[in-house]
Amino acid sequence: MAPLRFSANVSWLFPELPGLPARLRAAGSSGFEAAEVGWPYGEPPEALARAAQEVGLQLVLINTPPGDREKGEMGLGAVPGRQAAFRDGLEQAVLYAKALGCPSLTWKIDSTENKRSDPSEDRSVQGGCGSRHEEKGHGKEFGSTGGAERPGEMGSRHDRRAAGRGAPRGRGSEDSRFEDGLHSPLQAHFPHRIHLMAGRVPQGADRAAVRGEMETVFLENLRHAAGVLAQENLVGLLEPINTRITDPRYFLDTPQQAAAILEKVGRPNLQLQMDIFHWQIMDGNLTGNIREFLPFVDEGYKGFVGCEYQPRGDTVEGLSWLRSYWDKRGCPQAGQ
Hints:
It holds the Pfam family AP_endonuc_2. This is Hydroxypyruvate isomerase isoform X2. The chain has about 325 residues and is an alpha/beta fold. The protein is built from nine helices and eleven strands. It has helices at about 20-30, 45-55, 85-100, 175-180, 205-230, 255-265, 275-280, 285-295, 320-330; strands at about 5-10, 35-40, 60-65, 105-110, 125, 135, 140, 190-195, 235-240, 270, 305-310. Strands 1, 2, 3, 4, 5, 8, 9, 10 and 11 form a nine-stranded mixed β-sheet that branches. A two-stranded antiparallel sheet has the order 6-7. Helix 6 links the parallel strand 9 (about 235-240) and strand 10 (about 270). Mean pLDDT is about 75; it is low at about 105-110 and about 110-190.
């Protein structure tokens, strides 16, 4: 088995450093090949791109803007009455993705603790060689990436989370370029990725009563997004976020729901972001669910596993698990 490749979610890692550029530099200097940023919009994209380039770091995933956080919004894709704001946010995300060069996928593995809320609004990018891992002192727990009350999903991250395709396709189809490209995050033609955040059930509304309306809005916005993204060779990701611990009001909460929506939309550049943390909480049966939904991700996944967790102490000191993993497998470390 080839060694895992890890990415740093700098929205969570390196909280001891001020600002995303400093966190990106730290991630590259610590040996990560890639990073993901949840909401990079508080920084000029040129500053983020420059910081990443200085340390040879790929920026691989961002989220669409959350909306009005003061009003409790966490994405707008499925929120009735917010279609115009979603589309404006999508345009902004596309501008950032192009400036930052988000070329790869992530398989998000988060940990159960510290996933209840986003550690900071300024959460950043997803990408790299990674898997989500949570520190217990100097120990670790592997989990999966997600995106509610955090940056999302570039989550990631998604997340990871592995990013994949929206519906099974034959390798001879015109969209096989996506399938082939997904196996090589370092290729220049690799499609950039944006997590299209679904958003929350409106405050006070009954989930079952508004589910149909919200799905209709989501489908409409996703079809629009697929067209916009296709023009720029970008890929949109859907990330289910658990409603038992992380975000009780999030609309998209299971891989079953996400896969059904992807099938209805039927666009090859919309894919499923695999966040095992959320999948385990909502349904368990990880082996069965990975087998069932991998066709919506990537059956030959060789991308990054995103590291998304809240460090207990200094981030670099807590990365001993990663250095040990690389040393045992004789892996060269970026930045060294």
